[in-house]
Write a structure and sequence with these properties.
single chain, about 60 residues, mainly alpha, globular
């Protein structure tokens, strides 16, 4: 499941405009883990975020 750690990497690279190599991997892994927990049983307000997360993970 190591590929799951790259979804936030892409998310950060696309939305923050930062070069991917300059992103802190530990923080990205933590973000990905939190998104994974949130999206197991997402509240209605988080459905769009969870769909984006799922698409990014599937793309990798």
């Amino acid at each position: 499941m190591a590929h799951r750690f790259f979804a936030p990497l892409l998310l950060g690279g696309l939305f923050l405009g930062m070069p991917i190599a300059g992103l802190p991997m530990g923080e990205l892994q933590a973000l990905n883990a939190e998104l994974g927990r949130l999206c197991r049983r997402p509240p209605r307000e988080a459905l769009t975020v969870c769909r984006l997360h799922a698409r990014l993970v599937r793309a990798l």
